[in-house]
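Q: Sequence in, structure out?
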Amino acid sequence: INALFPDVILLAGDFLYDNHSSLSALSPLARLRATIGTFAVLGNHDTGNVLSLLHTPERIDDRTDPLIAILDDMHITVLRNTSRTFSLGAERLAIAGVTDLWAGTDNVQNALEGIPKRTATILLSHNPDVALNLKSHQAHLITAGHTHGGQIRLPWIGAIPRIPTRLGKKYDQGLFRIDDDTTLAITRGLGETFPRARLFAPPEILLLKSGVR
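A: Exactly. Output:
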């Protein structure tokens, strides 16, 4: 990631898998470097909101507080229904983030509130279903993960498992035009959920470049 010399690094959540995941395994994230900064939101695994179909009956704990604490120590800004605005010469960039939709605490309006007009705006969400909230279209770019690109895919067919979103299979990975001024970017991410395998959906670092120079 650092070799790409990024201006901004966005981490879309699910840092942990289950109760056995160790926070110490996240230590490499401390070495991330970006000109403006590294920003994150938490995912449904981090907050303990996991589909029981995919797991043993063991309840997954909400590890929000210790996870935010360790990310903060790594100088990674966790956005919880809030935003940060930066001046870039004569231009401005706002980076907003919402809590995970399955936790039921997400508030897009609060996340985007106070961003000055004519500010280039990125909205970070773990779950791409945030795009169903019309208020999210205030952002020019919505970035999300959660789908793993289906994780198991077949040529010409696409994702085999059901995509765990309301948007469904059509929005499983890649870039999508939401309206004239908003693009949704869904990354396959790096990890796996049950089963712990990938097929035709390799792990991915999604590099996005602005068309403005």
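The radius of gyration is 17 Å.
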